[in-house]
């Protein structure tokens, strides 16, 4: 279903790696809604070559950028406004990576060089992106910036490791930068806190299958899919949400307000019988 919600709007979409990526689904939905955009990812991720098919499908160009490099981000924003023919209306930050998780380091046994690297990629890159957009005055008034996060920023999920801390930092950046972007440029900044989703980043979390099944059984509406996250992002990019800013918005089927569900409880009842 398409409603032309983003007709005439221009933007940048970070983080589409393959067709499971939340950013991939978002690019497809934004395209369907009439938005135009530049796709970007880290040069190393682009070597896989899969992004080309998304670019073709959505009539967009790809500009490589390591989101931890201010120089790359400056080049990206300059080129994107040139290619798209004007200032931007939307930006999706869909980037996350923990080196400690990748290397199998437990939360109580971190390598702090890895911690710093993961924090830079997963959290500070959002500040860097916004600072470049802000300094270059590259956003149109009533534009919208969205980053993706997870509820481990608020509650304990032991295997989420240092990504929990990175997400807490990311959500704080959204509020802090959102204040300046709002008062000075009328641009809104929000984070979407998404259900566990089977993507490359998601499946990197230890015990992901249990994690996703538990969340699904706890949520009255079940887990939100990547496509449902894309749909929510489209509404935040549209003019229908102009006064929504500085928010962390849950797209999780209700999980974040649950104590226990009957389905989960039943498992323990069954065990005792
Ligand atoms: P994904 O693995 O498809 O996307 C992560 C992206 O980050 C990849 O495209 C990767 O190339 C990019 N990236 C890594 N380092 C980068 C760098 N230095 N510069 C630029 N890009 C870089 O996985 P997914 O799940 O689509 O992740 C998107 C966002 O959604 C992340 O912020 C993730 O934490 C968040 N999220 C994911 C959930 C899940 O269960 N999959 C749940 C809640 C939030």
TrEMBL record:
Q: Name one Pfam family in it.
A: adh_short_C2
So where does NAD(+) get bound?
Answer: 15, 21-22, 95, 167
Q: Where is the active site?
A: 150 (proton acceptor), 160 (proton acceptor)
Tell me the GO BP annotations in alphabetical order.
fatty acid biosynthetic process
What pathway does the UniProt record associate with this protein? Lipid metabolism; fatty acid biosynthesis
Quote one Gene Ontology molecular function term.
Answer: enoyl-[acyl-carrier-protein] reductase (NADH) activity
What are its E.C. numbers?
1.3.1.9
Q: Which UniProt keywords apply?
A: Fatty acid biosynthesis, Fatty acid metabolism, Lipid biosynthesis, Lipid metabolism, NAD, Oxidoreductase
Please name the top-level EC class of this enzyme.
Answer: oxidoreductase
Q: Which reaction does it catalyse?
A: a 2,3-saturated acyl-[ACP] + NAD(+) = a (2E)-enoyl-[ACP] + NADH + H(+)
Q: Would you identify the family this protein belongs to, as annotated? A: Belongs to the short-chain dehydrogenases/reductases (SDR) family. FabI subfamily.
What name appears for this protein in its UniProt entry? Answer: Enoyl-[acyl-carrier-protein] reductase [NADH]
């Amino acid at each position: 279903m398409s409603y032309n919600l983003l007709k005439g709007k221009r933007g940048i979409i970070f983080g589409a790696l393959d067709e499971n990526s939340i950013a991939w689904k978002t690019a497809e939905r934004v395209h369907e809604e009439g938005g135009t955009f530049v796709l970007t990812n880290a040069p190393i991720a682009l070597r896989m070559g899969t992004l080309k098919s998304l670019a073709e499908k959505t009539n967009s160009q790809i500009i490589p950028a390591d989101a931890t490099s201010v120089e790359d981000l400056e080049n990206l924003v300059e080129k994107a406004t040139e290619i798209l023919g004007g200032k931007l209306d939307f930006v999706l930050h869909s980037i996350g990576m923990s080196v400690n998780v990748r290397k199998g380091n437990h939360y109580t046994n971190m390598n702090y060089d890895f911690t710093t690297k993961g924090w830079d990629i997963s959290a500070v890159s959002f500040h860097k992106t916004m600072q470049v957009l802000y300094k270059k005055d590259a956003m149109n008034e009533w534009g919208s910036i969205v980053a993706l996060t997870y509820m481990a920023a608020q509650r304990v999920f032991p295997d989420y490791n240092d990504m929990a801390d990175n997400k807490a930092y990311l959500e704080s950046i959204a509020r802090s930068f959102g204040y300046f972007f709002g008062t000075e440029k009328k641009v809104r900044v929000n984070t979407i806190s998404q259900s566990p989703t089977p993507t490359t980043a998601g499946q990197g979390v230890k015990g992901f299958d249990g994690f996703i099944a538990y969340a699904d059984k706890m949520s009255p509406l079940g887990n939100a899919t990547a496509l449902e996250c894309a749909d929510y992002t489209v509404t935040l990019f549209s003019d229908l949400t102009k006064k929504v800013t500085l928010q962390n918005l849950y797209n999780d089927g209700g999980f974040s307000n649950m104590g226990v569900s009957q389905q989960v409880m039943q498992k323990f009842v069954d065990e005792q019988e």
